[in-house]
Amino acid sequence: MALAQLRHFVAGLTPEAYQQAAGCRGRHTLGKHVRHIIDHVEALLNLGPGEGVVDYEHRRRDARLEQWPQQAANRLDDLEALLVAFDPQKEAASLHYPVGDEALMLDTSVSRELAFLTSHTIHHMAIIGLLAEQQGIPLAEDFGVHPSTLRHWQREATSHVIAR
């Protein structure tokens, strides 16, 4: 769901808007955050049979996905299809987790990593939303909002109606 919403947003962007630098050092662009999301999803999908190690540290970082929104939208479309066919019941996995000069190998599961990626994606979509708003790009009200927050908003709206 989040990737579909992101894909739809990205497909409507011009390369100029997608690449526009923001922040005091100019390090942030819509494209860099989209590419970052794609990298993380690919890291999990590249989990080979029998390998069992998820490594978010060593990502592909394809610069074209930062620069060209249509390429990123196409890749997001591909990832959505791969996720539909992806088996979250794969064997137990380990997470390569760097800490300083060391790296820990933490027990995890594919399902747990899918949950992480959902929250990670939505978190970066919230940042993308802030950058888009600075450019005057319209967004859906629920863009970059976690489902738990949407449910909270709904309960809050319902309680205000009942209280009146």
UniProtKB/TrEMBL annotation:
Q: Which PANTHER family match?
A: DINB-LIKE DOMAIN-CONTAINING PROTEIN, PTHR39473
Q: Which SUPFAM superfamilies match?
A: DinB/YfiT-like putative metalloenzymes
Domain of life where this protein originates: Bacteria
Q: What is this protein called?
A: DinB superfamily protein
Instruction: Using the record's annotation, list all stretches that form the DinB-like domain.
Output: 4-128
Q: Which residues form a coiled coil?
A: none
Gene3D superfamilies, A to Z: dinb family like domain
Q: Which InterPro entries match?
A: DinB-like, DinB/YfiT-like
| Species this protein is from | Franzmannia pantelleriensis
